[in-house]
Write a structure and sequence with these properties.
Layout: H1 17-35, E1 39-42, H2 50-61, H3 70-80, E2 88-94, E3 97-105, E4 118-124, H4 133-147, E5 152-157, H5 161-166, E6 170-177, E7 180-188
Helix pairs in contact: 2-3
């Protein structure tokens, strides 16, 4: 660690060395953060991420469909990786790193075949959470739902109801689905 001199340069205005170090650290962190820009793109344009995305989704949601293998999940993701329309999967990338995903699918609950389309597979890697990335991914899916002439879209979630409420989703019901208690939610789409 670099030591600051006891007598600070005149441009510091007599600021203590601890405060000066704090400001320098903050400036360094901001530069690091700015270098990590996140871009939302169709998975169809970055198919090299299919295998990694399948692993992330499998680890997160295999309890909802234990008979689905990792290979089967990767195939399903590849088939749903449309660039536009339904189905479509969008990913967040930072440089060459996959950060997260969200999908627009025709149906995500086999017990509710009359409801369509659905927001699904919203996932952000732990180190990138609480930065608005999930919100950006959801907004990109909503744009696609609007282009697909949807008036309402749906989702189900185990744990993220509050996030969706903040984004304008409303509760339809709480139910058991595949052995798990979920909230089914919907959102009107302004077209």
């Amino acid at each position: 660690m670099t030591r600051l001199p006891r007598a600070l340069p005149a441009w510091t205005g007599g600021v203590s060395s601890a405060l000066f170090v704090g400001w320098r650290r903050l400036a360094t962190e901001l530069q690091h953060y700015e270098a990590k820009t996140v871009e939302i793109v169709p998975l169809a344009d970055k198919k090299e991420f299919i295998a990694e995305l399948a692993e992330l989704h499998h680890a997160e949601w295999k309890h909802l469909n234990p008979s689905l293998t990792l290979e089967g999940r990767a195939e399903a993701i590849a088939e749903s990786a449309g660039r536009e329309g339904i189905p479509a999967i969008f990913i967040a990338v930072s440089g060459s790193q996959l950060v997260g995903s969200a999908a627009l699918v025709q149906n995500d609950m086999d017990t509710k075949p009359d409801l369509s389309p659905w927001l699904a597979a919203v996932y952000v890697k732990e180190g990138f959470r609480h930065q608005g990335i999930a919100t950006e991914l959801i907004a990109r899916c909503e744009d696609e739902a609007i282009r697909s002439h949807a008036n309402t879209w749906y989702l189900y979630t185990e744990f993220a109801s509050r996030l969706y409420e903040k984004l304008g989703w409303r509760h339809m019901e709480r139910c058991e689905y595949k052995g798990v208690t979920v909230d089914v939610m919907c959102k009107q789409i302004a077209s």
